[in-house]
Amino acid sequence: MDSINQQQPEDNFKDLIGPEAMDKIKELAGSAKSCFFVSNIKTGVPASVRPMSAQKIDDEGNFWFLSANDSHKNEELSTDPFVHLLFQGSAYSDFLNIYGIATVTEDKEKIKELWEPTLKVWFTEGVDDPRISVIKVEPTEGYYWDNKHGNAVAFIKRLAGAAIGKTIDDSVEGKLEV
């Protein structure tokens, strides 16, 4: 345990398994203001990082994205399907770290299910644009950082801790197993 967590007056680690992990993944990914999609994990070349939006997180915990079938990302995934997804919801909580394996398809039914009108910015021919592909990321492991009682309580605890010079933190973190 690191020195900061040793100073905690309360336990701030909680690993989550199964449905509880799934709920936390959906909560944190759903509230995220940003998602970074990292590819080229195992190829030995520098990782490629790009912002993306998950169109859906299904009941099994899979993340679904729409992507151009001629993109660098899709090319990278064809040789190295291992990915890393990073989500951040706020400055002090709602962090989610997911590793997974990506598969790319051009499943027309899934494209229709995931389609939103704003995607026409990238796929100008609409839902039937021939360049649309689907990326499914199946999580293999994850980790989260959050707070226990909401941002307001976490902020008050941080202020109180700073005033008295003691670690009073409302954070909680742990492994996620879906």
TrEMBL record:
Record domain General stress protein FMN-binding split barrel: where: 20-169
* Database matches in InterPro entries: Split_barrel_FMN-bd (IPR012349), Stress-Dev_Protein (IPR052917), YdaG_split_barrel_FMN-bd (IPR038725)
Matching Pfam families, A to Z? Answer: Pyrid_ox_like (PF16242)
Matching entries from PANTHER family are given as:
PROTEIN BLI-3
Mind telling me what this protein is named?
General stress protein 26
